[in-house]
Amino acid sequence: MRTKDRIVETARVLFNEQGYGAVSVAALASACGIAEGNLWYHFKTRRALLDALGERFADAIETRLTLVPGGDPVAGYARLLDAIIAEFRDFRFLYRDQRSYGEHGERVAAQAPNWIERTYLQFESHLGALAAAGLLDWPQERLRDLAINSTIILRYGLDHYRELGEPTGTGTGAVRRTLLRHLTLFEYRLEVGTAAQLRAAIEVIEAEALAA
Prior knowledge:
Distance between the termini: 19 Å
Number of helices: 11
Number of strands: 0
CATH topology of the largest domain: Tetracycline Repressor, domain 2
CATH superfamily of the largest domain: Tetracycline Repressor, domain 2
CATH class of the largest domain: Mainly Alpha
Mean pLDDT: 91
Radius of gyration: 19 Å
Order of helices and strands: HHHHHHHHHHH
CATH architecture of the largest domain: Orthogonal Bundle
Low-confidence stretches: none
Helix content: over 70%
């Protein structure tokens, strides 16, 4: 891995673990195994480093937004859940620490409203595929509301547990609880086998989070 890429990846991990404002340049350079001067050579300011992380975040969102239901709507929805939770987990400091770093970078700030709308549409498409396959008994005219509410629970689930003083790090089960909580919105209207499949997929997602 190039030094610049190693700095960005190490910063992402440390910012997630300790908080953006808690990681000094000296600590970041030490974790990368380089001198502070070398770090400053690649990133003249902390803001430049944050912008580089924002670009990775943007790329992750654009990749996730390409996911479509496909031939198996249950597997497709499970893939979507896996991807969006990974996005929230891998870049959680961007959601959590804005008070510390201020405004988002230009690309993230410009695209955020569009990403939100496209995410609602993506969830509506996947939930609609479940309904069209007879696996979800849900009125077509209410799919939009279900998509929005599902996205809100997934987006703010970990923040909710943190505000309650509950641990949200790896191994706490917070990801699993968040995914199961979103499922309560519509599980009672799912075909029994489909509900079981999605619950099993959530257990796999939790196991993958532990192994990461």
